[in-house]
Amino acid sequence: MRVSRSQAAENRETVINVASRLFREHGFDGIGVKDLMEGAGLTQGAFYKQFASKDDLTVQASRRALESAILRWSATAEANPQDPLGAVVAFYLSMDHRGERMDGCPVVALGSDAARQGADVKASFEAGIREYLELLGSWIGEADGEEPGGKAMAILSTMVGAVLLSRVVKDDRLSKRFLQAAAESVLTGAPAGDATLAPRQP
Fold this sequence. Notes:
CATH topology of the domain at 59-191: Tetracycline Repressor, domain 2
Keywords: DNA-binding, Transcription, Transcription regulation
Organism: Mesorhizobium zhangyense
Number of strands: 0
Distance between the termini: 66 Å
Helix content: 55-70%
Largest sheet: none
CATH superfamily of the domain at 59-191: Tetracycline Repressor, domain 2
Oligomer: single chain
Shape: globular
Protein name: TetR/AcrR family transcriptional regulator
GO molecular function: DNA binding
CATH class of the domain at 59-191: Mainly Alpha
């Protein structure tokens, strides 16, 4: 049965959306075309009618994941105009976000994978990272310019690193302290070392 042009376009969007989530969960190389298409409720044979290659889908899904993340930051900030940075830090450096492997920050989930991909994937991530930095700069009062400000870069690095480390460790208590230490550092400027671990209880 021939698929209409509008249905084909809708299917393509579905595949991109599903891939943007499944790649965050499994990594770019951790899931194949067959499973991606099954996740979208489509056959593997339809893939090459929609995309030139898996690399093509990887680029599209990367852009979609970063667009979704930026929209989430923006919506959170708009809902909390008195303290946009505090609101974004509260959701980003949370145990809930730590557990959102399919819907969480793509820089955390796929950053190391993206570093090993081609120029188009890297360009997608760079564009998203620059948007993160632009939002952070607007909230902390850094002047607009061609290059991002150092404070915004430090905040983003702290936040991304904290969520990554919180996912790496198995100890939930240690995981939570990584997030708390980062939040304290970002919001107060205190060194991360101020958030020391209390002795483990026997």
